[in-house]
Amino acid sequence: MSSTIKVLLAEDQSMVREALAALLGLEDDIEVVAQVARGDEVLPTAQQHDIDVALLDIEMPGCTGIEAAAQLHKALPAVKLVVLTTFGRPGYLRSAMEAGADAFLVKDAPAAQLAEAVRKVLAGERVIDPTLAAAALAEGANPLTDREREVLRAAADGSTNAELAAALHLSQGTVRNYLSTAIQKLAVRNRAEAVRIAREKGWL
Amino acid sequence: MSSTIKVLLAEDQSMVREALAALLGLEDDIEVVAQVARGDEVLPTAQQHDIDVALLDIEMPGCTGIEAAAQLHKALPAVKLVVLTTFGRPGYLRSAMEAGADAFLVKDAPAAQLAEAVRKVLAGERVIDPTLAAAALAEGANPLTDREREVLRAAADGSTNAELAAALHLSQGTVRNYLSTAIQKLAVRNRAEAVRIAREKGWL
DNA sequence: AGACCCGCATGACAGATGTCATGGGCAGAG
DNA sequence: CTCTGCCCATGACATCTGTCATGCGGGTCT
Asked: Which chain A residue has the Cα nearest residue B192?
């Protein structure tokens, strides 16, 4: 708490990452002491930098920002976690909170909220968009089982049942059964819609 | 060329937009004189600001940065156009060039290239990632006809043939024929894959 | 132990989807 | 003017997909 707040910034797109660093650099009390472009570099980098706050994008190669948040929360519980994302998907918010995040920001919020969120989490506050929180609560938890999610995720690229069966070591009939139950749970008509809806909700 | 380069910045996500503005603000010779969050605000805003360069994100509500580029190119041909995008899709590059863009940057390029590109286009140079340019040339032009693209785009959300036929005022058989030819042109097995491939190439 | 949910499977059926042959109308290129 | 390509349509066919009934084994909760 002495002089400046030390921040680790994780975001895969260099231009965005460095731009966010420039933005935070304008604040006198905040200093970006490390930057990474991959989810799986977050924990190792955090361990050798003595940081106060980690700013994590969700969509990253290696592992997602949410998984990185969970790792940090376990290994370095003192570090505050701010999750940043392009998509305001309620399921993401829920997962982020379960992973121990202290703040959840969407990238189309005003830039001023970023520095503000960093200061607030360090003061022990939680920062969550109330509209998104309401949406997350309203739609309930992910209704899909692990297998259903797995099959749906594999089906997302347009694979045929036979390919899915081979890839997942299941019978074709089983693949169709899982997809069928997923389709019913999501109240849609076919796998393509199921994929779309599951994505929108952050359940995929 | 006098004192500073005047830039219009178009990008829908506030946080990213303001961060990019902060980044450009660090350069002594560049000044962001206007910011917009929608494609259809680009031209009107540009007309009342006397700008040198427009920095356009592709994915925006209202209209795409490529459409905005085409409008600017026609109405204010002196303004240099830098197109910025998350996705390095060859088809995007091709469309951007056809719309009169002077530079094409992907967001995972180093941040330093942004200011550099702004200066270069003003000096009359073109800035294009050579790898991407090669890819764009290698894969040729979009093989899909207008109708095929239209049907494929409409099918992307998981709509059924009947819904597509109704929405596009076509018969179901015609919808299936278009999808079938699109599927063959893209050398894939079903509409879902066709959608994915067309998206990846920037042909959708 | 019994009830219950999940994972996995099969078989049968209806409906959706992809392919193919075919043909008419219309525009632009040679 | 003919040729070609695109747009639109139909009908028939094979295959893929989604639904449903049913069953088995394993785990968990009471």
From this structure: A158
How many Å apart are CA A11 and CA A82, to the nearest integer? 12
pLDDT of residue B190: 93
| Residues of chain A contacting B, Cβ within 8 Å | 12-20, 22-23, 25-26, 84, 86, 105, 107-111, 113-114, 157-160, 188-196
CA distances from A162 to A154, B17, B82, B108 (A): 12, 45, 45, 36
- Whether residues A130 and A77 share a domain: the answer is yes
Is pLDDT above 60 for A203? yes
Domain edge (last residue) among B137, B160, B186: B137
Domain encompassing residue A190: 146-201
Give tens-digit pLDDT for B24-50: 999 999 999 999 999 999 999 999 999
Q: Are residues B59 and B27 in the same domain?
A: yes
pLDDT digits (tens, 9 = 90+) for B138-180: 887 888 988 899 999 999 999 999 999 999 999 898 999 999 9
Element (H, E) at B56: strand B53-57
Instruction: Examine the fold and report which residue of A103, A138, A173 is the final residue of a domain before the chain moves on.
Output: A138
Collapse the DSSP code of B80 into the 3-class scheme (helix H, G, I; strand E, B; otherwise coil) and give the result.
strand
- Do A131 and A158 lie in a common domain? no
Residue of B nearest to A11 (CA): B108
Query: Nearest Cβ partner of A107 from B16, B158, B196?
Result: B16
Q: State the total domains in chain B.
A: 2
